[in-house]
Amino acid sequence: MSFAAEIASFSKISALNADRLVRAVLVDIAEELVDKSPVGDSAMWNTPAPASYKPGHFKANWHHKQGSIDSSVRATVDPTGDVSMNQIRSSVLNASKPADIHYLYNNVPYAMALENGHSDQAPHGVVSLTVIDTPGIVNRAASRLRI
């Protein structure tokens, strides 16, 4: 194999590995966000739950989008987070340009209150803890993928 062919092969393998790593890290970060998301138990509250309260609404509203975000809020609930993760996995795996900007976000109006410790289940938030763990998430994904 010529030197030029070796460089071309290395470049192709590197691009494929980068693609795999970006997708794996996005899914792993999403799993952390969804897993850390509280599902309210109104029995633990000091005040009655609002009539419109839906346990699992916050977990149901994690989204992945490439390139931009939208303002959508799902009306559904997902106390386990399984539906949200399936949607995020599908979105990440179908993303056309892994090297593009990706967003993992939650648009419910009370997301900032939860992030600021409003829930006893997530007293230190969800996103901030996941951000702190991001280097570990990347390292674990790279190890798992043997990159």
Q: Quick one: how many beta strands?
A: 2
Binned, the helix content reads: 40-55%
Low-pLDDT ranges: none
- Written as H for each helix and E for each strand, in order along the chain, the element string is HHEHEHH
Number of helical regions: 5
In order across it, which strands form the biggest sheet?
A: 1-2
Kindly give the count of domains: 1
Give the biggest beta sheet. Answer: 2 strands, antiparallel
In round numbers, the mean pLDDT is 93
Q: How far is the N terminus from the C terminus?
A: 23 Å
Question: In terms of structural class, how would the helical and strand content be classed?
Answer: mainly alpha
Provide the gyration radius in Å. Answer: 19 Å
Shape: elongated
Strand content: 5-15%
The protein's oligomeric status is single chain
Plain-language structure description:
- It is a single chain.
- The chain has 147 residues and is mainly α.
- The protein has one domain.
- It is 50% helix and 7% strand.
- It contains five helices and two strands, in the order ααβαβαα.
- A two-stranded antiparallel ribbon has the order 1-2.
